[in-house]
């Protein structure tokens, strides 16, 4: 059951990234991230009103809020990266770091001992990131800045997964709820900093269709985190994280097949290596 929930988390997260990426190419990525988290907060609150919730505990709410800080940072950088780079590149970069860092922390501080396939995957991931970051193919589909955004997003995603894993399995959706609230606050702070640095530029007006994409991205992301939280009830952190981190498969397929994103041969090699690294860690 835990493996199934982790895979559901990967699928919903992948679709969420596609929706958020499409929206961030039409309006400010900050607006997309903010609207998405508001949608996730609203959906989580509605579900908790319908389904009886267990009493909230301060520690679980705190870990959920810390996870939300990671979410806010991760989504802000991820959507910025997709707004100025290839979806099929930025998302895998964010996933490799997002899966490798939690595994290393789990080994160093939580006493978990992953098998040798996991370490093989991590070692493959390092040169994969270097190949992916080697400039563009002349079409402008991959920029160095978007690669840096993907790497920054991976740090936020790692914080998101690690902190959420510290919440008690019996806490229900309370950590998800507090996490959405913290994510909204984090995105607002990030927006203020980015506006001051002139990183955020005026874009097209927010139409209902784009608004729907942003809300859908946030609701699906919250669903993915809830599935991940339930997966932790029966699986180790390393297993739940790596299976949930298979989500790049969805945006990669969409980006290459439907959005005609083009990559250099070396970048394609790095992308394949990154996916292989994630799979090796997942099946270990």
Structural class: mainly alpha
Number of domain units: 1
Q: Any idea what the shape is? A: globular
> What is the overall number of helices?
11
Distance between the termini: 18 Å
Could you tell me the number of beta strands? 0
* Uncertain runs: 135-140
Approximately how much helix is present in the residues?
over 70%
* Overall radius of gyration: 18 Å
Residue fraction in strands: under 5%
Tell me the major beta sheet: none
> Could you give the order of the helices and strands?
HHHHHHHHHHH
**What is the mean pLDDT?**
83
SSE diagram, text form:
Blueprint: H1 2-24, H2 29-50, H3 58-83, H4 87-109, H5 116-132, H6 144-165, H7 174-196, H8 208-231, H9 237-244, H10 249-258, H11 265-283
Give a quick set of tags describing it.
globular, 284 residues, 11 helices, 76% helix, mainly alpha, single chain
């Amino acid at each position: 059951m835990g493996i199934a929930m982790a895979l559901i988390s990967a699928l919903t997260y992948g679709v969420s990234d596609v929706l958020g990426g499409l929206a961030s190419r039409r309006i400010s990525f900050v607006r997309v991230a903010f609207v998405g988290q508001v949608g996730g907060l609203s959906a989580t609150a509605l579900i908790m009103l319908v389904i009886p919730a267990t009493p909230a505990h301060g520690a679980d709410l705190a870990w959920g809020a810390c996870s939300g800080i990671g979410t806010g940072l991760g989504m802000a950088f991820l959507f910025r990266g997709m707004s100025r780079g290839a979806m099929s590149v930025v998302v895998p970069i964010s996933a490799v770091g997002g899966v490798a860092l939690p595994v290393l922390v789990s080994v160093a501080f939580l006493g978990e001992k992953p098998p040798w396939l996991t370490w093989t995957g991590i070692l493959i991931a390092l040169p994969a990131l270097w190949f992916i970051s080697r400039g563009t193919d002349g079409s402008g589909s991959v920029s160095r800045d978007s690669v840096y955004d993907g790497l920054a997003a991976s740090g936020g995603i790692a914080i998101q997964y690690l902190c959420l894993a510290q919440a008690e399995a019996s806490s229900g959706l309370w950590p998800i709820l507090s996490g959405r609230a913290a994510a909204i606050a984090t995105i607002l702070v990030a927006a203020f900093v980015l506006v001051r640095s002139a990183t955020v530029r005026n874009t097209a007006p927010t139409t209902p269709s784009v608004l729907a994409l942003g809300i859908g991205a946030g609701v699906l992301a919250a669903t993915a985190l809830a599935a991940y939280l339930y997966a932790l009830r029966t699986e180790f952190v390393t297993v739940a994280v790596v299976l949930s981190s298979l989500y790049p498969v969805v945006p990669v397929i969409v980006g290459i097949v439907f959005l005609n994103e083009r990559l250099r041969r070396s970048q394609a090699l790095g992308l394949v290596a990154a996916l292989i690294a994630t799979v090796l860690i997942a099946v270990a």
